[in-house]
Design goal:
The protein is an alpha+beta fold. The protein has helices at residues 2-19, 91-108, 176-192, 275-278, 358-365, 407-410, 445-449, 523-538, 547-559, and strands spanning 27-37, 40-46, 49-54, 72-79, 88-90, 112-121, 124-128, 133-137, 156-165, 170-174, 199-207, 211-215, 220-224, 245-254, 259-263, 284-293, 296-302, 305-310, 332-341, 346-350, 371-380, 383-388, 392-397, 419-428, 433-437, 458-467, 470-475, 478-483, 504-513, 518-522. The protein folds into six domains: 21-94, OB fold (Dihydrolipoamide Acetyltransferase, E2P), CATH 2.40.50.140; 110-180, OB fold (Dihydrolipoamide Acetyltransferase, E2P), CATH 2.40.50.140; 194-267, Beta Barrel (OB fold (Dihydrolipoamide Acetyltransferase, E2P)); 271-354, Nucleic acid-binding proteins (OB fold (Dihydrolipoamide Acetyltransferase, E2P)); 358-441, Beta Barrel (OB fold (Dihydrolipoamide Acetyltransferase, E2P)), CATH 2.40.50.140; 449-537, OB fold (Dihydrolipoamide Acetyltransferase, E2P) (Beta Barrel), CATH 2.40.50. The strands form six sheets. It has a five-stranded antiparallel sheet with strand order 3-2-1-4-5. Helix 8 (523-538) crosses helix 9 (547-559).
């Protein structure tokens, strides 16, 4: 009887055990650490089941396992029994499931999560987010490219979840977003404490072609190259170096963009305040050429004060050359102050004004009539240009080349490089012109020869040639031609062959042409003039006396 009761109790207990809820495989269950041996923790998960978990699954990246006998832990039940009759469990998978629940909530709330970078992969790094592994792209590590991520490895720090997909097991996080947010908060706080015109200390963080970025304690300001010094600064590295602490003034703050403009020269005295007193108009000063352009050269009179020498004020003689052929950068030159515009901060300077006008000098040293010598620099359709002292040119017009030849013919005998002599005929300083004459070198022979000869004068000439149309004669070395019709009053006597070369004859001057340098001569005009004079003196044609009698009487009177 007792035996039957015992069997019934056993059957009831067995059925009760079968009816009890057993954990489902693939779920997270609680267990108790029974022992630690051979690098594993033996965990009782209840239901007469025990399993083993490697100790490394209880350690965070870079840390030692944190587990002791008696601890209660959550593990993931992968299988209720393996070949050895033990439960197959995993602490890491339990942590992952727990972490995914926590991370999904944080992602939905746009909250930060804590993690540690523990590995490097292609394109970025792996991050442990308390059991779940996320990908940190290289571009999301910091606000600036990171060359060495060693100091960041294993360090617990906040991250922002950018993207996650539980089904695929993908999580993408960003450290940069956290830094930018923190930076923005810090920036806003710093900017709130800054005011325009305030003087602050900063550290030079970066130098570019156009300026330098200065850290003001969590916020960067731009120090433009034009605000570094009153003088011209070609590159910021001339006066600044990275890491240097500088004193700057806050020039402008843009509340919307949080951009800050800084200045260094504003803390120094403005040299333009004293320009008018230091550099009066007409004064000459020594300066240094700082920059050369197509239209002139900039000359520094003192640090912070530059003036422009326009190309037209650089040389008296070099009119169409680039300023770089007259001066060079860093060259010291003497300049004259021509104009000051205080409002526009401009000074107009002159280089040529410090030297005497070469045309004035030439006019003083070479009065009209002075003989000069120079090289033929250029030949044009209207004359020759001759190089003279003082690097200036004089011009010989076609009409001043020769007394005897046409200018177009005379110029053919000259070429560039010829050394010629000439006489200064005129100097116009205002127009910067010098007129020269080559034909005047030997004087004006025609003027000298006919100096006392006027129209109507009777002169004696020598016959030099007999031609069909008349005769060629010479007077004081000047040639003239008497046409056949002017050889006699009597047509029968108008024969050139009645004269011989070497004959001396008296002729009347009918014209003095200085332009063609010719004398108009006539025997006929002389005879008519003599007849008229005789008639007026000894009678008229109406008195009854014959012309022969009158002329005979006149000739007799001359002989007496």
């Amino acid at each position: 009887m007792a035996q039957n009761t015992s069997m019934e109790e056993f059957e009831a207990l067995l059925n009760e055990s079968f009816e009890m809820d057993t954990p489902n495989e693939g779920s997270v269950v609680k267990g108790k650490v029974l022992a630690i041996e051979a690098g594993q923790a033996i965990i009782d998960v209840g239901y007469k089941m025990e399993g083993r978990v490697d100790l490394k699954e209880f350690a965070n990246p870079g840390e030692a396992p944190d587990i002791t006998v008696g601890d209660e832990v959550e593990v993931y039940l992968r299988s209720a029994e393996n070949a050895r009759g033990e439960a197959v469990i995993s602490r890491e998978m339990a942590r992952r499931e727990e972490a995914w629940d926590r991370l999904e909530k944080a992602y939905a709330d746009d909250a930060r999560v804590e993690g540690a970078i523990f590995g490097r992969v292609k394109g970025g790094f792996t991050v442990d987010l308390g059991g779940a592994v996320a990908f940190l792209p290289g571009s999301q590590v910091d606000v600036r490219p990171v060359r060495d991520a060693g100091p960041l490895m294993g360090l617990k720090q906040p991250f922002q979840i950018l993207k996650m997909d539980r089904r695929r097991g993908n999580i993408v996080v960003s450290r940069r977003a956290i830094l930018e947010e923190s930076r923005a908060e810090q920036r806003a706080e710093v900017i709130a404490n800054l005011t325009e015109g305030q003087t602050v200390d900063g550290v030079v963080k970066n130098i570019t072609e156009y300026g330098a970025f200065v850290d003001l304690g969590g916020v960067d300001g731009l120090l433009h190259v034009t605000d570094m010094a009153w003088r011209r600064v070609n590159h910021p590295s001339e006066i600044l170096s990275i890491g240097e602490t500088v004193k700057v003034q806050v020039i402008k703050i843009n509340k919307e963009t949080h951009r800050i403009s800084l200045g260094m020269k504003q803390l120094q005295e403005d040299p333009w305040d004293l320009v008018g007193a230091k550099f009066p108009l007409g004064s000459v000063h020594k300066g240094r050429v700082t920059n050369i352009t197509d239209y002139g050269a900039f000359v520094e009179l003192e640090p912070g004060v530059e003036g422009l020498v326009h190309v037209s004020e650089m040389s008296w003689t070099k009119k169409n050359v680039h300023p770089g052929k007259i001066v060079s950068t860093s060259q010291e030159v003497d300049v004259m102050v021509l104009e000051i515009d205080q409002a526009k901060r401009r000074v107009s300077l002159g280089l040529k004004q410090t030297m005497r006008n070469p045309w004035e000098v030439f006019a003083e040293t070479h009065p009209e009539g002075t003989e000069v010598e120079g090289e033929v620099k250029n030949i044009t359709e209207f004359g020759l240009f001759i190089g003279l002292d003082g690097d200036i040119d004089g011009m010989v017009h076609l009409s001043d080349l020769s007394w005897d030849e046409r200018g177009e013919d005379a110029i053919q005998s000259y070429k560039k490089g010829d050394i010629v002599k000439a006489v200064v005929s005129e100097v116009d300083v205002d127009k910067e012109r010098i007129s020269l004459s080559i034909k005047a070198l030997g004087g004006d022979k025609f003027a000298e020869a006919v100096g006392g000869v006027k129209r109507g004068s009777i002169i004696t000439v020598n016959v030099t040639a007999i031609e069909d149309g008349g005769i060629e004669v010479e007077y004081e070395g000047m040639k003239s031609f008497i046409r056949r019709s002017d050889l006699s009053r009597d047509r029968a006597e108008q024969r050139p062959d009645r004269f011989s070369v070497g004959d001396k004859i008296d002729v009347r001057v009918t014209n003095v042409d200085s332009k063609t340098r010719r004398l108009g001569l006539s025997i006929k005009a002389r005879e008519i003039a003599e007849e008229k004079e005789a008639v007026e003196q000894y009678g008229s044609s109406d008195s009854g006396a014959s012309l022969g009698d009158i002329l005979g009487a006149a000739l007799k009177g001359d002989n007496d």
